[in-house]
Fold:
Amino acid sequence: MKIVEQSYEILYPATTQEWEREFKLIELAGRTAYKSEGKISEFSFLPFIEVIKKRGHGAVLEFGNMVVKFITDRGITHEIVRHRICSFLQESTRYCNYGQDKFNNEVTFIKPGDMGNCYGFEDYCKAAELAYLGLIDAGKSPQVARSVLPTCTKTEIIVKANFREWKHIFDLRVLGKSGAPHPDMKRLVEPLYTWLVDCYPFIWAEVANGGA
Structure:
């Protein structure tokens, strides 16, 4: 049995050049609408995007995309996949057989943040792992054996969405604009949001100020 922390990894854009490519595509799309392509220069996307935000023209931001890999528990991914304007691919408990050597013959879990030093949590996870591996040893398929695994079972999910949808995700899952976010969802997504605001404030910082 293994217990790991939640984490995220930005898969794309992965370099400064890739980020600029997305920003420039946003500018090109927007300037096509206004027929002002002649104003495009090397870094003209900076003031252009700021103007777009002030105007609340969120549709232009749909031309920028980001792909993020999250490691979390299956309960949190149930909330992530409710964001419909996204593409998702997730670790499959139907096909992943954790009783095989490539998984070290063990199940991995995520400890909920509010669990603290709850006595017995690891024992509960160990019991679930033993039940799962017992079913596998008895010849049951992974899709049947997974029925005994708890919500805190670790999973990996890759999420692709445009910038406008990511801003909506941050509004709900970090800033709580529709009500208090799930604590572990906020713990997962807030570091990503904070990094984006720190690195590219001209496009992300206004999320907190009710921008596009």
Observations:
- Helices lie at 16-34, 45-55, 74-80, 121-137, 142-145, 163-173, 183-199, 201-204.
- The first helix runs from residue 16 to 34.
- Residues 13 and 169 are 18 Å apart (CA to CA).
- The chain is about 40% helix and 15% strand.
